[in-house]
Amino acid sequence: MTDTPTLHDQHGRYPRAETADDFRHNLAVVQARIAAACQRAGRDPAGVRLLPVSKTIDEARIRQAYAAGCRFLGENKVQEAHHKWEAMQDLADLHWSVIGHLQTNKAKLVARFASEFQALDSLRLAETLDRRLQLEGRQLDVFVQVNTSGEDSKYGLPPADVPGFIAGLPRFPCLRVRGLMTLALFSDDAARVRACFVRLRELRDRLRQQAPDGIGLDELSMGMSGDFEIAIEEGATVVRVGQAIFGARAVPDSHYWPVGTR
Ligand SMILES: *Cc1c(COP(=O)(O)O)cnc(C)c1O
């Protein structure tokens, strides 16, 4: 179980899905990988939610993914997500999760349409989101993003700051805190990738014992196309998978988060 490799060498080589059948195929492959990882870890696959990540994917292909059964999609950039949400109002049961860094001045967009926000990393943002959600009469599931790789370039709170941060969240009644989210080191060195996931799980386990009332810390959102098996072995309850479902992405990761050693 500890020698599961990363698949970062697949980067840029995942088969592109165009039709609903292509999506069914790619989803089945990913679900089989999830099931195999769960089996190695002695976990029930029902405890792992697959969040397909549709950034850069156009509306026509997203509709094919919907036809193949996708009902929850992750987007890194809020404006892109909001455009897609507006364009696909007819798909009433399609839900959007914003998984990328958010500037406070765009909080009102998230409050308007998102079902979930996975990159909460400042109290100022929490406060703005909560105020906007009150105006919209909505609530939002949120994950606190943690920088587990120690790279300056990564978004998210340093692990040491998370307990104090969580203690401040009960002030915001429209935010339903679900758990923690991280991006691991992007490396072929599986042991170092695994160490990021272990750090997030251990932090969650410690925090859970002292969590304020109403703060749920059950969820761990960790793992993407190249490393989700390792994340599942270490306790992921949500895996965010783009390229293994939609196909290789031309846009480099540096467009989505500042790249250090990634
Ligand atoms: C794009 C993205 C993913 C998915 O990455 P893939 O390599 O396409 O699987 C996961 N998490 C975040 C925050 C992302 O922006």
In short:
The chain has helices at residues 20-41, 59-67, 78-87, 107-113, 123-136, 162-167, 190-210, 228-233, 243-246; strands at 49-52, 72-75, 95-98, 116-120, 140-145, 175-181, 219-221, 238-241. It is an alpha/beta fold. The strands form 2 sheets. It has a 6-stranded parallel beta sheet. Strands 1-8 form a two-stranded parallel sheet.
Report on this model:
This protein has 262 residues and is an alpha/beta fold. The chain is built from 9 helices and 8 strands. It has one domain (20-253): TIM Barrel (Alpha-Beta Barrel). It has helices spanning 20-41, 59-67, 78-87, 107-113, 123-136, 162-167, 190-210, 228-233, 243-246, and strands at 49-52, 72-75, 95-98, 116-120, 140-145, 175-181, 219-221, 238-241. A 6-stranded parallel β-sheet has the order 2-3-4-5-6-7. Strands 1-8 form a two-stranded parallel ribbon. α1 (20-41) crosses α2 (59-67). The protein starts with 19 loop residues before the first helix and ends in a 16-residue tail after the last helix. The model has no long low-confidence stretch (mean pLDDT 94). The structure holds pyridoxal-5'-phosphate (PLP). The site of pyridoxal-5'-phosphate has 15 residues, from β8 and α9.
